[in-house]
Write a structure and sequence with these properties.
By secondary structure, this protein is mainly β. The protein has 1 helix and 14 strands; from the N terminus they run H-E-E-E-E-E-E-E-E-E-E-E-E-E-E. A hairpin with a 4-residue loop joins strand 12 and strand 13. The protein is globular and about 40 Å long.
Length: 179
């Protein structure tokens, strides 16, 4: 665990630096490889990463959940790239394991969905997302998971929520202080 702290700190500092810097938005990367190196990857511009909601690490790749979709910065890369086609607002982002992520937020402008996504999950490293629960009812600003237990803070109603079945059903908890 201690060896991962310097790596996570490096990735976090990289994300902050990328958020402050501008760049080209039209470059693409193609070919096989880790998330962020496929045909749907685009290099970042400063405005695209100006609103970061969450960070995660999978296979030494920094995952950046933003107001404009999922971005990645594989180890050794100096610029983040858009991953996938969706530009949905991904909030409350958490890596469950490998290619399995959870999140929340707001739909892509082209999606015909309620304004709050509830709990969403990707089983393919962020290429696609599906609703798990609470669509239209919750906007989790923070999500943390451990096994099948998921904790979330729903910003729409100020609720601290917990699920013991991977987010399919939820119980409300009393927070230790006003949130």
């Amino acid at each position: 665990m201690r060896a991962r702290r310097p790596l996570l700190l490096t990735f976090t500092l990289l994300a902050v630096a990328l958020a402050a810097c501008g760049g080209s938005d039209d470059a693409t990367v193609s070919g096989p490889g880790p998330p962020g190196s496929g045909p749907n990857a685009q290099s970042a511009s400063g405005s695209a990463l100006a609103h970061i909601h969450g960070l995660g690490v999978s296979d030494d790749t920094l995952l950046i959940a933003t107001h404009t979709g999922l971005w990645v910065a594989p180890e050794g890369q100096t610029q983040a790239r858009r991953f996938g086609k969706s530009t949905q607002d991904i909030m409350g982002f958490s890596v469950l394991d490998g290619d399995r992520f959870i999140g929340s937020g707001h739909p892509d402008p082209s999606q015909n969905l309620p304004p709050n996504l509830g709990l969403i999950e990707s089983g393919d490293a962020g290429r696609s997302w599906k609703n798990i629960s609470l669509e239209g009812e919750a906007d989790f600003h923070v999500l943390e998971s451990s096994g099948s237990r998921v904790y979330g803070f729903d910003g729409t109603q100020g609720r601290l929520m917990v699920s013991s079945d991977g987010g399919e059903s939820w119980d409300q908890r009393t927070p230790p202080a006003a949130m």
